[in-house]
Amino acid sequence: MSVSTPTPAPAQVVSAPAPRADRPAAVAPARRSRRRSAATWGWGVLAIVIALIWVFPVYWMINSSMLSSATLESFTPTFLPFGGSFANFTAVIDGSFFGALGISVSVTLIAVFCCLLFAFLASVAISRFRFRGRTTFVLAILIIQMLPAEGLFIAQYKMMSELGLLSNVLGLSLLYIAAVVPFTVWMLRGFVAGVPAELEEAAMVDGLSRTQAFMRITLPLLAPGLVASGVFAFLQCWNEFTVALVIMNAESETLPLWLRGFVQQSASRAIDWGEVMAASTIVAIPVIVFFVIVQGRMTSGLVAGAVKG
């Protein structure tokens, strides 16, 4: 009796699919790359346009400061100061300029230093300590910033008059400090809150006192915040006009008040726009130089202060 073994079925041969002519999977990354490149170029062009819009007034001020008043009043604009001179600068720099410069520098330095000192101590207190009235103090800072400066002029004038500080550098400095400290406290509070208190505690475990730990650990980390706050305080004090107009007289003007004299037209003297632009350039130079010096720390300080508040 023979046993027949079943014959295995022939194996099915699976043929590989023929390659397709189009490969969308490979084309898609290239398309996305081109789109990203186009978007990058578009944003770059937009940034350049915005930068030119912001820079053009500064360029026009410097350009006009080297041109005569007749050239500036012509219907054809002059975008390049060909044939210009520094005559406008020599005309505006006189004895009154140096007096106004000295007053502005003195008031700004006093106000910025005291403002940073008071605001720094206050921001550390409200960020690191819990005490009765802390919330009320923070709310008072916000409310003070909402008050219009014009509504305080009469009270400020009477107070400075009774103290004998009218047309005085110290009196104007006190008003600037009172005006700038609330905003500076609120700004520095975010920087102080962003520095972990555990860093000081670890330093104290290593043998440092609380004061030494604060000076060696926390204060260096707050340097960018102090620079950023100092820049804002400097700009507000240097460019302030209305309070100085109320408190100071013609013999003790700040630079913004000195600049006002060039745009006041009288029956005997017309406005010389070349001198106006030259005076404006002189007033703006310290701000530009100061910003260029501290721009690196200011940028890092603003970013650090936005982390935690």
From TrEMBL:
A family per Pfam: BPD_transp_1
Ranges where the ABC transmembrane type-1 domain occurs: 101-294
Region (Disordered): 1-29
TM segment ranges: 41-62, 97-125, 137-157, 169-192, 213-235, 276-294
InterPro entries: BP-dep_ABC_trans_perm, MetI-like, MetI-like_sf
Domain of life: Bacteria
PANTHER family tied to this protein: INNER MEMBRANE ABC TRANSPORTER PERMEASE PROTEIN YCJP, MALTOSE TRANSPORT SYSTEM PERMEASE-RELATED
Protein name: Carbohydrate ABC transporter permease
